Amino acid sequence: MNLKFFAFLLVSASVFVGCASSKPVRPTTTADAYSNYDEDLSAVRPKYKEPTPAEAAKKPEVKRVLSDQPLHVNRKLDAVVDTIASKNRAIRFASGYRIQIYVGNIRKEADDARLFSYQNFPELNPYLVYNQPTYRVRIGDFMTRLEAERYLQQVRGRYESAVILAEKIDLKKSLLVK
């Protein structure tokens, strides 16, 4: 068995060696393939007339085309801008923030909180919300949380439990807050 296997191995090896090329194959890379490329493309290139010195010195004239209605685009654009502006003016409420300074069941304390807001922050509008039996006093109409946090630090001197709440705010009043 070993002799047959050895003979088979010898025959198959001689077949493989006989099939091998006597000329070594050199692997080509993409760079080698393009470095040997040589073709004359001058026959297919466009030919341009060389300008004379007088033509080269002359500046080309710019032709302006005026339409019959030169402002027709501006009129359409103005109409669109006016439409957008009127829609924006109609928007009265947006999402924003308010500071809640008081939550409790006693009406007098709620009124005191409103009075504190009127005296110390006249630019902020106080809102008294009553859901039986709880009074809530919220102040301000802030567009951003950052604006609300600036006032929150000042309010916490008196009302330590003051918090910022996300609510719908009146846009016209929010523009008055500085």
From TrEMBL:
Keywords in alphabetical order: Signal
PROSITE patterns assigned: PROKAR_LIPOPROTEIN
Pfam families assigned to the protein according to its UniProt record, in alphabetical order: SPOR (PF05036)
GO molecular function terms attached to this record: peptidoglycan binding
Endpoints of the signal sequence: 1-20
Family matches, as InterPro entries: SPOR-like_dom (IPR007730), SPOR-like_sf (IPR036680)
Residue ranges constituting the SPOR domain according to the UniProt record: 96-164
Gene3D superfamilies documented for this protein: Sporulation related repeat
Keyword Signal applies: yes
Superkingdom of the source species: Bacteria
Keyword Signal: yes
Name of the featured protein: Sporulation domain-containing protein
Source organism (scientific name): Runella slithyformis (strain ATCC 29530 / DSM 19594 / LMG 11500 / NCIMB 11436 / LSU 4)
